[in-house]
Specification:
It holds the Pfam family Usp. The chain is globular. The protein has 177 residues and is of the alpha/beta class. Helix 1 crosses helix 4 and helix 5 runs parallel beside helix 6.
Length: 177
């Protein structure tokens, strides 16, 4: 029995491989008349900077100043991420509207793998992109993709993009069939 796909999660880090994977996500959504959730997760930069530097910025700045800096940077990051998603999505907007595919855009902050997995619980398929740098490299997905693949209970489709911006030959040949 063929799977019934009603909702697809397209996870993007706004990279070139992710943009390449969007075409696949839209194609699959159109084929199945499935709803499409577009998700971008902004890593918790404040936590990452604090861990990487060994500094506790909350003690360097007074608490109110630190919270304002965090909030301002997060708000700006989310705004830019939404704009970049909208710009990429605009290319396909007419086609989506014509086919009647319902879409939603989500920009959140947190741990990318955990957040994607949380959204994946609501989906029938997860689609994301990754770089395929070499024959050996194509055996392994990026760290976020690998984390999602290894922990997801929802099927995951990972679309590779080579360093030169092209799809691997095997993918190109499959598209012709």
């Amino acid at each position: 029995m063929l799977p019934h796909i009603q909702k697809i999660l397209y996870a993007t880090d706004l990279s070139e491989p992710a943009k390449h994977a969007l075409g696949y996500a839209l194609s699959v959504a159109k084929q199945y008349q499935a709803d499409l959730m577009l998700l971008h997760v902004i890593p918790d930069w404040a936590k990452n900077v604090t861990l990487a530097s060994g500094l506790d910025f909350a003690t360097i700045y007074d608490e109110n100043t630190w919270l304002k800096i965090k909030d301002d940077v997060l708000r700006t990051s989310m705004k830019h991420a939404r704009e970049r998603i909208a710009s990429t999505y605009k290319t396909y907007k007419y086609e989506l509207e014509e086919s009647g595919i319902a879409t939603s855009v989500h920009v959140l902050t947190g741990h990318p793998v955990n957040t994607i997995l949380q959204f994946a619980k609501e989906a029938d398929l997860v689609i994301m992109g990754t770089y395929g740098h070499s024959k050996l490299g194509s055996l392994f997905a990026g760290s976020v993709a690998q984390g999602v693949i290894s922990r997801s209970h929802t099927p995951v489709m990972v679309i590779p993009l080579q360093k030169d911006g092209t799809a691997p030959p095997a993918v190109k040949n499959n598209l012709r069939d």
